[in-house]
Amino acid sequence: MKTASLIFGILAIIGLIVGFIPCFGSLNWINIPIAVIGLIISIIAITQTNAGESKGNAIIGIVLCSIAILFGLIRLIAGGGVL
Prior knowledge:
Layout: H1 2-19, H2 28-48, H3 56-79
Helix pairs in contact: 1-2, 1-3, 2-3
C-alpha cells in the first residue's frame, strides 16, 4: 500500500508537469482525481502502518499528491478552466 501511494504521487507529479505545458492544461482535469485517489491511498497506508515500520513512502505520497492537487487547481484557475 505504501508503494502504491508513492507511485500515485509520482504519476500525479508527472501529470502536473505535462499539464503546465501550453495546450495540455486540460490534462489537469484527469490529473487532479488521480492525485486525490493517491492522497486517499496514502492516508490509508499511514493509518495501517505498524509501529515499527517505516512510513516514508506514504508520507512522500501525501506530499506529492498534495502538491499536484494544489498546483493543478492553480493552473486550472489561471487558465480559465475553473470558473
